[in-house]
């Protein structure tokens, strides 16, 4: 019988997930840095070994599991352009809360009975 609490279990799962993400990112990041020049694909900023940590790999289709060996789904972007790209993607309605997900995110409508209340005045 384990003495692991639900909090301990959650911490363990989150830590494992982060390790796996880091390993996955390390693989495609290393590949992308070998394939492409160290230049931001949007603003043209050039990078050296000293500031290379500020150059990120962007997935063009926004699917972080789509990592073809030829790099066709990758684009090197600086931190700022990468953040801007994801903000534009989310603002355009393609993010996590788009479409049916956004409609089902909240089922409570505080004004559902308002029409009926106003008619009874």
Provide structural commentary.
The chain has 121 residues and is mostly helical. It has one domain. The protein has a two-stranded antiparallel ribbon.
State the gist of this model:
By secondary structure, this protein is mainly α.
What is the averaged pLDDT score? Answer: 82
Tally of helical segments: 4
Total count of domains? 1
Largest sheet: 2 strands, antiparallel
Distance between the termini: 63 Å
Number of strands: 2
Strands of the biggest beta sheet: in what spatial order?
Answer: 1-2
- Secondary-structure element sequence? HEEHHH
Radius of gyration equals 22 Å
The level of helicity is 40-55%
Structural class: mainly alpha
- Strand proportion: 5-15%
Shape, principal axes of CA atoms: flat
Oligomer: single chain
Return residue spans where pLDDT drops below 50 for at least 5 consecutive residues. Answer: 97-105
């Amino acid at each position: 019988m384990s003495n692991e609490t639900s909090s301990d279990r959650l911490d363990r799962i989150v830590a494992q997930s982060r390790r796996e993400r880091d390993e996955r990112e390390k693989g495609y990041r290393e590949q992308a840095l070998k394939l492409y020049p160290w230049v931001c694909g949007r603003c043209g900023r050039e990078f050296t070994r000293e500031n290379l940590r500020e150059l990120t790999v962007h997935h063009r289709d926004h699917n972080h599991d789509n990592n073809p060996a030829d790099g066709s789904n990758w684009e090197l972007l600086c931190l700022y352009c990468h953040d801007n790209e994801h903000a534009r993607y989310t603002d355009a309605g393609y993010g996590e809360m788009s479409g049916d997900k956004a409609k089902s995110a909240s089922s409570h409508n505080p004004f559902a009975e308002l029409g009926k209340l106003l008619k009874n005045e």
